[in-house]
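Help! Submission page says 'invalid entity' but I think these are all valid:
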Amino acid sequence: MAERTLKRAGITGLGMSFPERILTNADLETMVDTKDDWIVERTGIRERHLVEKGTPASHHGALAAQQALDHAGLDAMDVDLILVPTVTPDMTFPATACVIQKLIGADKAWGYDIEAACSGFIYALETARAYVESGLTRNALVIGTEVMSSITDYEDRNTCILFGDGAGAVVVQPVDPADGGIIDAVNHMDGVGVKHLHQKAGGSAMPPSAETVRDKLHYIYQEGRDVYKYAVRGMANVALEVVERNGMQGADVDLLVPHQANIRIIEAAQRRLGLQDEQMAITIDRFGNTTSASIPSALKVAYDEGRVKRGDNVVLVSFGAGFTWGASLIKWCID
Ligand code: UT7
């Protein structure tokens, strides 16, 4: 058995991939009773990217993963763990992690999917951190990938304006603690949320049938106002929790990368932490809510814009179905 010593885990590579096709608010105006003004004001979303029908989540997941590997200077054969947070896996089983493993040729890796809705990436990052810190894993890939359009009812104006497709991926490796890495994380869950946001049919509670398809029970069901109330409180609280328990305050945060569900939820967290606009990573206008892909892709966009630098304190924060919510505090450790 190999000798193991405790390590610090850090993000050492970033990737993202989005489909080319764009669905604008103007397009949605022709599909349901809605208005661009309403969508922008209530959500902050202007457009979202959607796959061509039939493109599985693994497709953009694999592209994002390969980009993250290239960024980290790793070969797919170096990967020993693949974690795929998603609510839109290629199939219920086997895991989309298996499909992506084959697509990228990570023949030495094992892995699995993680289902924690919009907190999937935060939960999976924490899982990867545990493997890397324990010494069990050297090179982990965390790939948030979603085809939300596959479970969205484009006749339901309450939900179809919100979601988009795409993928974001990170490489997690052991790093020198002097350089930084993932410093801390806080995660929470409260099943009170199950009734407010879910997919009714397709699982063991309600197996698929002609009736479930007829009654549109395979689409996202959301009681938006209820989720909104919990999300505003939950996201701000957990971001503050991870910051304060590390002896920091808002001013010490260089970049907050929130899950992109609604600009008003994001701004509530911003106000609570007393952050300036320069401290925020916002992509909701371009991509909508991409569930587990939103945080890694927003991080990648900010990195590409030169807004994440070595030594920066970066806070990732999510709130999603379940309810699930969590935050990670990272001292950025790569150039
Ligand atoms: O990602 C994980 C977790 N999810 C979230 O965090 C989402 C949380 N919820 C939200 O972001 C918001 O609740 C929504 C964006 C989903 C909705 O915004 P809202 O301000 O909560 O609107 P509402 O549901 O209270 O609806 C207000 C009105 C309603 O009309 P009445 O009943 O007041 O006459 C809706 O029917 O707006 C109407 N409405 C729309 N109008 C134009 C709902 N959807 C639309 C639409 N266009 N697309």
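Support: the input was valid. A stray whitespace character was the problem, and the output above is from the cleaned input. The radius of gyration is 19 Å.
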